[in-house]
Fold this sequence. Notes:
Layout: H1 2-53, H2 69-80, H3 88-95, H4 99-118, E1 122-123, E2 130-131, H5 135-142, H6 147-185, H7 197-210, H8 220-248, H9 263-280, H10 287-291, H11 299-329, H12 345-381
Amino acid sequence: MHNTQDIIEEISSAATTQDRIEEIEEISSAATTQDRIEEIEEIEISSVSHHEDASLYDDDGRQKRTGTMWTTSSYIITAVIGSGTLSLAWSIAQLGWSGGLIVMIFGLLTLYTSHFLANCYRAGDPITGKRNYTYMEAVENILGGKNSIFCGIIQYANLYGTSIGYTIAAAMSMMAIKKTNCIYFSHGTKTCHVSGNHYIIWFGTIQLGFSQISNIHKMKWLSNLSTIMSFTYSLIALALGIAQISENRAFKGTIAGAEAETHAKKVWAIFQALGNIAFAYSFSDILIEIQDTIKSPLEVTTMKRATNLSITTSTIFYVVCGCIGYGAFGNSAPGNLLTAFHKPVWLVDLANLTLVIQLVGAYQIYSQPLFAFVEERITKKWEIIGKEYKV
Length: 391
């Protein structure tokens, strides 16, 4: 009897255990099903979210580019029409009246080579080909090997040197404002010596603030402002030159240009003048970086149109400002056209001030690719630095 009772209890226990096992399996199955449902819902939500955000990104996964022909032209003009415009009168003085023709030839050469370089932005197909985001990357993908290192060293050294040059030019313009006002208010009784050290520090401090701009894509407003400033001081210099010619009642200058003590010095002056003209058109080392701001898919076509507009505009300004400056002062034209004028004081000060503002933007246009290169190298070496933190 006892054995029978034990057997009944064991059977009941086994049945209960089996029921519990089945219940656990059902619960587990339900839980698994629920997890899967949740996973599917998350995937669907993610897909919808991704689909909605797809319009914010380009085909390479980067934030959508919004640049147009006008914004690209603004970048180029900011980079090209700089303080070099004011040195063209001196350059033409070394070359004679034929210098105007030489300026136009340099413009055509710059336009021709810029079209070739614009084709290098995408590898293969100009619409769907792989993008080259920087000049150095284009060299690496097209030429390969050590060529990218060699060209990269030249490019970034040039960007660094140009930035230093712009810093010095901005300091000289600020010094000119100080000196002009000193002479004016002292009625010419003071020598008005001005040191440029603290002006260089001031300009560097300003650049520390503007260098916080994340990349060249975020600089549209600064580029537009710099473009306006470029036209402003160029037009002021042009107007002052025309006024000087009117006062002289004649055009100065000769066919052969300024004379020199020796043939060697004359040759050296000619090469300096050609160097000034070439520098005035220099923007090839940042062309691809500028092109990377253009919205797809017609980056190459848009870049060529922007280059046509910018180089044509720059060449007209260069020829007119250079020839008017040479016509006003002849072979004694100064290296910086604005330094030849002292009245009206407010207009000369305005021209120098707009030049300083333009150089702030030009400095950033040339420095941003250098900043991007340094940040990329540091991020690859120390990944923890690659994270962005909003303040």
